[in-house]
């Protein structure tokens, strides 16, 4: 069977693109900070460099303009003449003075004199503008670097889901794991079933019960866990059999959420299983073994399954 279009890829990327926004695209500018954080790194770095470059050139031009209007560029700066900014004779020297002031380097060769009220006002404006630009751009870069998206890459899902009997009940199961030693606090898992409905409702979405009533959806993810959905009369797979699985078309979207222990930020990892990735009559191989004083997890067997005797009939049958 050829691979069909997925709603969510195996790596968690949602295959949804928004188009024809019209006038609603202005909402991105009203939340410009979030828009800037959501941009790709190359655009963030470009905006970062352009903003600082333009701000530096504009402010250096203002300092040069004050010196030009006062005639400081053509006067000798000494005891007989007090300029606005000492030792500023051209645009490069005005630019160096701005950088020294903005970066609080203070080499001492260039400085504002007390006989330049316009320079004092410009100095205050530069200090305020520099603080705002630094807070905005550096804050944006910090938030982008600390986003928990990369943490989600160390959360694993089994490549396939399985259907077999567990405690004499037919269950749909898949496996999740955490590759890091740091824990996911308050980890919770949810499942959505996507099925095609028709022309006016392309996708129908319903919930798969993975232990909401019993609290089994709250995970203590220190070792790989097998998530179980019991197929009963309330399950959307109540009429699913081994034969009908070959002709069904559905997608199970799995969402794992939790708080990153080291940063305190909420992390979300996603994956999906289509009907081709559901194995009837299989079970996952054990991955944990007891060593000398600790439990060892063998991730080489994380995706491995083996066949077990399973009735080919649906629960309804």
TrEMBL record:
<dbReference type="InterPro" id="IPR003274">
    <property type="entry name" value="K_chnl_inward-rec_Kir3.1"/>
</dbReference>
<dbReference type="InterPro" id="IPR014756">
    <property type="entry name" value="Ig_E-set"/>
</dbReference>
<dbReference type="InterPro" id="IPR013518">
    <property type="entry name" value="K_chnl_inward-rec_Kir_cyto"/>
</dbReference>
<keyword id="KW-0812">Transmembrane</keyword>
<dbReference type="Pfam" id="PF17655">
    <property type="entry name" value="IRK_C"/>
</dbReference>
<protein>
    <recommendedName>
        <fullName>G protein-activated inward rectifier potassium channel 1</fullName>
    </recommendedName>
</protein>
<dbReference type="GO" id="GO:0005886">
    <property type="term" value="C:plasma membrane"/>
</dbReference>
<keyword id="KW-1133">Transmembrane helix</keyword>
<dbReference type="InterPro" id="IPR016449">
    <property type="entry name" value="K_chnl_inward-rec_Kir"/>
</dbReference>
<dbReference type="GO" id="GO:0034765">
    <property type="term" value="P:regulation of monoatomic ion transmembrane transport"/>
</dbReference>
<feature type="transmembrane region" description="Helical">
    <location>
        <begin position="45"/>
        <end position="66"/>
    </location>
</feature>
<dbReference type="GO" id="GO:1990573">
    <property type="term" value="P:potassium ion import across plasma membrane"/>
</dbReference>
<feature type="transmembrane region" description="Helical">
    <location>
        <begin position="120"/>
        <end position="143"/>
    </location>
</feature>
<keyword id="KW-0472">Membrane</keyword>
<keyword id="KW-0630">Potassium</keyword>
<dbReference type="Pfam" id="PF01007">
    <property type="entry name" value="IRK"/>
</dbReference>
<keyword id="KW-0633">Potassium transport</keyword>
<keyword id="KW-0407">Ion channel</keyword>
<dbReference type="InterPro" id="IPR040445">
    <property type="entry name" value="Kir_TM"/>
</dbReference>
<dbReference type="GO" id="GO:0015467">
    <property type="term" value="F:G-protein activated inward rectifier potassium channel activity"/>
</dbReference>
<feature type="domain" description="Inward rectifier potassium channel C-terminal">
    <location>
        <begin position="155"/>
        <end position="316"/>
    </location>
</feature>
<comment type="similarity">
    <text>Belongs to the inward rectifier-type potassium channel (TC 1.A.2.1) family. KCNJ3 subfamily.</text>
</comment>
<dbReference type="GO" id="GO:0034702">
    <property type="term" value="C:monoatomic ion channel complex"/>
</dbReference>
<feature type="site" description="Role in the control of polyamine-mediated channel gating and in the blocking by intracellular magnesium">
    <location>
        <position position="134"/>
    </location>
</feature>
<feature type="domain" description="Potassium channel inwardly rectifying transmembrane">
    <location>
        <begin position="8"/>
        <end position="148"/>
    </location>
</feature>
<keyword id="KW-0851">Voltage-gated channel</keyword>
<keyword id="KW-0813">Transport</keyword>
<dbReference type="InterPro" id="IPR041647">
    <property type="entry name" value="IRK_C"/>
</dbReference>
<keyword id="KW-0406">Ion transport</keyword>
């Amino acid at each position: 069977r050829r691979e069909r279009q997925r709603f969510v890829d195996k790596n968690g990327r949602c295959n949804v693109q928004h188009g024809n926004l019209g006038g609603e695209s202005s909402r991105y500018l009203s939340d410009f900070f979030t828009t800037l954080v959501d941009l790709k790194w190359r655009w963030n770095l470009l905006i970062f460099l352009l903003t600082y470059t333009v701000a530096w050139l504009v402010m250096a031009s203002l300092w040069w303009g004050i010196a030009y209007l006062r005639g400081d560029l053509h006067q000798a700066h000494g005891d007989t003449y007090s300029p606005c900014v000492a030792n500023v004779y051209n645009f490069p020297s005005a630019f160096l003075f701005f950088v020294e002031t903005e970066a609080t380097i203070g080499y001492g060769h260039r400085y504002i004199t007390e006989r330049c009220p316009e320079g004092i006002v410009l100095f205050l404006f530069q200090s305020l503008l520099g603080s705002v630009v630094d807070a905005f751009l550096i804050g944006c870069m910090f938030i982008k670097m600390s986003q928990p998206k990369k943490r989600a890459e160390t959360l694993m899902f089994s490549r396939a889901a399985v259907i077999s009997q567990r405690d004499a009940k037919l269950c749909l199961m898949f496996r999740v794991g955490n590759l890091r030693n740091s824990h996911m606090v308050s980890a919770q898992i949810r499942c959505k079933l996507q099925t095609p409905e028709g022309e006016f409702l392309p996708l129908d979405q319903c919930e798969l019960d993975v232990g909401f009533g019993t609290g089994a959806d709250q995970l203590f993810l220190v070792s790989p866990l097998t998530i179980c959905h019991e197929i009963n009369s309330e399950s959307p797979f109540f009429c699913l059999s081994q034969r009908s699985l070959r002709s069904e078309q559905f997608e199970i979207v799995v969402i794992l959420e939790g708080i990153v222990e080291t940063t305190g930020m909420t992390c979300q990892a996603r994956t999906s299983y289509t009907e081709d990735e559901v194995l009837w009559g299989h079970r996952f191989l054990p991955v944990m073994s007891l060593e000398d004083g600790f439990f060892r997890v063998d991730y080489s067997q994380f995706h491995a399954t083996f066949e077990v005797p399973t009735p080919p009939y649906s629960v309804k049958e």
